[in-house]
Specification:
364 residues, 12 helices, 8-stranded parallel β-barrel
Length: 364
Amino acid sequence: MNVQFSNAARAGDRTPLLSAYTLGDLTLGNRLVMAPMTRSRAIEGNVPNPLAAKYYVQRAGAGLIVTEATQVSPQGVGYIRTPGIHSAAQVAGWKKITDAVHAAGGTIFLQLWHVGRISHPAFHGGALPVAPSAVTPKGTVFTAQGPQEMVTPRALDLSEIPDIVEQFRKGAENAKAAGFDGVELHGANGYLLDQFTRDGANMRTDAYGGAIENRARLPLEVTDAVVKVWGKERVGYRISPKSPFNDMTDSDPVATFSYLSAELSKRGIGYLHVVDPAIPAEGRVTPILRKIFKGTYVVNGGFDAETGNAAIAGGEADLVAFGVPFLANPDLPIRFAQHAALNAPDQATFYAGEEKGYIDYPAL
C-alpha cells in the first residue's frame, strides 16, 4: 500500500498533505489521518468484525489510522455493534487487524472511548448510564430494541472516579497487547471525558466540578494514567470545543479548551486532535489553540485536498484528519496525489450493510 502511494505521489506533486511527517519516534508517510468513524459492524461480544481487517488494510495508505471509537468497559457502551477493548476476545480480534495493517505498511492508533450519559439502561441490564451529573441529554439512542429516548443518567460518586481512570488505563494496556502503535483518548463529541470538561453537562460541586481546573481533572488524570502505559509521544487526545453534538454546551469554550490544551501540552502528548470545521472560518478555535498546544496539531472537520493543503502550508496544522472521504475512498492519498475524482459516499450504509458500503468502495 505504501509503495503504491509513493509511486503515485512521485507521479503527482508533493503538496503539503503528501509530505512525510515525524510523530514522536514514528515516521508517517503522509499527513493524512484517517479519522475515527463508528461503523456499527462489531460481532457478538462487541468483538471487532473480521471484515475490519480488510477495511483498515484498504486504508493503510493513510499516514495514520485512528480506529473507530472503542469502549474501555461494558459501562462505556452506548451504541449497538461497537467494538470494545476490555475482553480477551476483543484484544485477539484487534490483534488480527493490527497485524494486517502493519503487514500493509500502515500505522494505527486505537481510540479509547466511554460514552457516559449517551447510552440507555438497555445496554446495562437495566442500570442507568453514568455521567458527571444527572443532566438528561436530548435525543435518542439506538438499542437492539430500536431507537429509545435518552434517560437521566446517574451522577458518578466521588469514590467511583478512580475506577473510570482505571478503565481507561486498562484499555490502554489492552491496546498495547493488541499490537497498536498508540492510542487516542476520545475527549470530544459529548462523551464522558467531554461531559466532565464542559459546564453544560458537569454540575458537580466537588473536586471534579465548578472551575475548569476541576472539570479538567478527570480528563487529565486519565491522560496521565494512559501516558504511564504508552509513553507521552504515543498518546493523542481529541476535542470538539464548539460542537453541540449530543446536546453539549459550554459557557466559555475558548477558555475551557485553552486550559485543557495548555495542560495537555505540558504533558508532552503526541498530538491534539481538534474538531474545528474548515467552514465557516469565523469563530474557529484553531488559531488560538494552535499557539497554546506545542506538540503535533491535527485538525478535522470538512477538509478537502485544497483546504487541507492550505491548513498545513499556512501553519494551522501539522496533520489533517479526513472522515467520510476516507470511508468512501480507501486510496484517498493516491487520489489526492493524482487529482482524481472521489467516490460518492453511501450514507445508508454508514452504520449498516456488512460488506456493502464497508469494504466494497473501489480504488483507482
